[in-house]
Fold this sequence. Notes:
By secondary structure, the chain is an alpha/beta fold. The protein has helices at 9-12, 16-19, 35-39, 43-52, 69-78, 133-143, 168-177, and strands spanning 58-63, 83-89, 102-106, 118-123, 144-153, 159-161, 180-183, 188-192, 203-207, 221-224.
Amino acid sequence: MNDGRLLDDAALERSSVVANNAMNRERRLIGSNGYGRDLGIDVAELARERLAAGAQTFRWLDLCCGSGRALLECAAVVDDARLRITGVDLVDAFASDPPSGVEFVTASVATWTPADRFDLITCVHGLHYLGDKLKILAAIASWLTDDGLFVANLDLASIRSADELPLDRRLRTALRSNGFDYDGRRRRITRKGSAAIALPFEYAGADDQAGPNYTGQPAVNSYYR
């Protein structure tokens, strides 16, 4: 890969592929295009179970949340003041006047840092458009509570070697040894519990001209040494 073609995160976020992608703009909580189908979990039921078990709060962070429609639906379904929901997206296309307990943040996931830790962190098809995907995964691990859960869509084929050395096996080993599980058939990555981790790869940049990924939508390839 010619490093001269690679973009840093600041340039990547100005790319039309990233700024204009609509993968998650109006996605709902349940249904054929819902979070449950993409993530394999029932977010509302998980929140209800934890709260019924006596948790003082249940904090859910959704990265690349689009309009936040699914988050608003969850707040309405659970209807519990102890539920705290934060949605973060690069583009301010959120629903207006969110109810108490729901917060929308316009920010780059690459640079944003939360003030709290979370019982659940999700990212539905958002990692496809991020540059330094491995840095984000390491950050997410530190944002979880001790028994928190992380679930996201991720295509490992989009994480590539900048020096043409084989990466797939090393990448899978590094993720597994740092507590991540990867379902290659569903292209889904998960993790349970908080940790401070460092993945052994150096970010070289991103290619916003990678073309469509398995979703059929244009995506971003990330390169590492």
